Amino acid sequence: MPHSHSKIPIITFTANLVAETTYYVDNWGPGQVSRATKERFQVGGKGINVSKMLLRLNAATKAICFPGGSFGPTTVEWLERKGIPVQAFPIDCVTRSGSIIRSPGEAEISVLGLDSHVSKVAVQECVEYLSRLESPYILSICGVFPNWDSQTWEPFRDWIRQRNKSAKLAVDTYGPGLKWFVEQSPECVKINRNELELFFDHDVQEVSTDSLLEQIASHYKCPQWIITDGENPIWIKTEKESCVSVQPRRAQCVSPIGCGDVFFATLLDGIANHPETGILDTVRLAAEYASRNAESHGIADFEVG
User: Fold this and answer.
1) Which is nearest to 191 in space by CA: 142, 125, 252?
2) What is the pLDDT of residues 186-241, one digit of tens each?
3) pLDDT on residue 298
């Protein structure tokens, strides 16, 4: 059965929104014109996918994003039509485009356009919105931040440093902002093995994941670390316990898109709204849902329960 309604809202933050079209073709290749037999439009970005899965789990969520440009109105319309609660900050922003090609018997092709443009005005409006929120909530940082080190994000960085205790931070990001967010005392960090290696200034490819995780967890103030590694074991490190692992089942992969986001959403719902389940069983459920997502064409469209 689906989970009961959430008591703690989970606000997802997507800085790099994508307006994406999937083309279904019978065959395609270099030098030929391929005509789609059907096409489907969807809005992506890690936070959007996380919110979509949270809704499947009957959790309270809202998706912060920065739609704009020619795709902006279509993006907001799609989100509203799908019933995804959204808080949009569109002033002077431009949403990137993306295309997916699916052909029978072939691995899908995914092409993303140039990163979205987010304006400092929109970021400031977002900070003002977050500053008005009073009830406890989790702010889920999802995906990459274009131009993270620029002045554009300065208001947001300042707000994160000075945030009210009611705003709990959960991190699933990569790129230049990763280490910075980990330094801000988050409640939870979920990254993959490759991203974990970036915390070290020497080659650690031959070092076991649990050993690396123990080292990192001792340096940063974060009570829960989750390290994924494809089909390899998922490692968990909590504040008071040593590393433990969960082995995900091997999925018959149809599409890998959104699997990490489904995992993160299920993890957040468990941490926020079902603490009695325990982190180990929560990770097992998250891994199972990620596998089901891999075995389906859509994102968070599989059977839950």
Assistant:
1) 142
2) 999 999 999 999 999 999 999 999 999 999 999 999 999 999 998 999 999 999 89
3) 83
**Nearest-angstrom CA–CA distance, 137 and 272:** 9
* Euclidean distance between CA atoms 146 and 116, whole angstroms: 7
What is the set of domains in the chain, with CATH numbers? 10-294 (3.40.1190.20)
Q: Match 């933050």 to its residue by tokens.
A: 13
SS (H, E, C) the chain: CCCCCCCCCEEEEECCCEEEEEEEECCCCCCCCCCEEEEEEEEECHHHHHHHHHHHCCCCEEEEECCCHHHHHHHHHHHHHCCCCEEECCCCCECEEEEEEECCCCCCEEEECCCCECCHHHHHHHHHHHHHCCCCEEEEEECCCCCCCCHHHHHHHHHHHHCCCCEEEEEECCHHHHHHHHCCCCCEEEEEHHHHHCCCCCCCCCCCHHHHHHHHHCCCCCCEEEEECCCCCEEEEECCCCCEEECCCCCCCCCCCCHHHHHHHHHHHHHHHCHHHCHHHHHHHHHHHHHHHHCCCCCCCCCCC
| Cα–Cα dist 167/194, whole Å | 28
Encoding tokens for residue 133?
């929120």
CA distance 55 to 244: 29
Entry pTM: 0.91
Rg (CA), the chain: 19
Do 254 and 291 contact (CB within 8 A), yes or no?
A: no
pLDDT above 90 coverage of the chain, percent? 82
Contact (CB, 8 A) for 83 and 59: no
**All residues at 6 or more sequence positions from 107 whose CB lies less than 8 Å from its CB, including other chains:** none
